[in-house]
Amino acid sequence: MARGIERRRIFQSDGDRRRFVDRLAKVVCDGNALLYAWSLLPNHIHLMLRTGPTGLSLLMHRLLTGYAVTFNRRHNRCGHLFQNRFKSTLVDDATYLLELIRYVHLNPIRAGVLAGLDELDGYRWTGHAALVGTVPPPPWQNVATVLEQFDSDPERARWMYRRFLSDGLAEPSSDHNGDGFVRNASQWQWVPSLKRGREAWAFAERILGTAAFTEALNTTLAPVSPSPPRSTSEDVDVDVTRLVADVATCLKLSPQQILGSGRSGPVVNARACLAYILVRQRGFSLTRTALALGGTKWSINRALQRSAALPADPRTRPSELLQVFDQICGTGRCQRKMR
Fold first, then answer.
1. What is the pLDDT of residues 64-82, one digit of tens each?
2. Same-domain check for residues 249 and 315
3. Which of 130, 202, 203, 262 is the most buried (most CB within 10 A)?
4. Pick from 36, 32, 58: which is nearest to 47 by CA?
């Protein structure tokens, strides 16, 4: 789930929704993901999918950042569109697949956007219409897998699916926050008592599953203490020289320009990219980043602030900046080195 900053609208028109759906289709297909359910509401979106080789973080980065750039251009605005990190839950699909599909597709009704199932059947901005057959199933939505959970006959399966949603309207709504483990900064932690509420874990991943499912993950993921220490130069080894060279190549600069004292727009943007990757992606401290790039903690902090607005700034070259984030963070060039 991703929510608009300060709960503001992220869709101003059907044109915005169409652009989001087109981008969603592209990232799902490019990432070889399986999308089971989706729903667009005025100020937030819900997706239920099985990720492929791309991974969830990169897939969502491409989806949300790319959409934010086009939205800001269309509506002559700048700055953040989405509120912090998206909210994600790792789901035991053997137990919760259908329940989560129902939860996602009933959201427009429960949020008061639609009056009932009859309106939902014809609503274009969820995956429900494709499941009940009122619109042709798009190739990027996994309609067949969902219907097979109800019956092998497609017509009967559609009827049973719709009845399943109708039954859900008579039951109390649940936010499905999950329980057991959460993940912050790539570290899994055991939390004995999770808070409840829609925003209780807006910055962490949760697990929703049976006791056996979470116990298996407990063994597989090796959770750490609730307050893991910050990464230091001893446990994270990043090839900063290579990283600077890659950013320089993408932005048509030289490493000497980036590490020098120049203050031109492209150089400042390059430093903002590097600060974002090293601090936000790799867990560097401000002090270590300043030593690596040449500067002060204050200048790195300013670069981080600038990095948040880079994709939306009409004076920059967003496509190249996004290429930096996607290519460098996605290829593993700045990953931890094996010792």
1. 989 999 999 999 988 889 8
2. yes
3. 130
4. 36
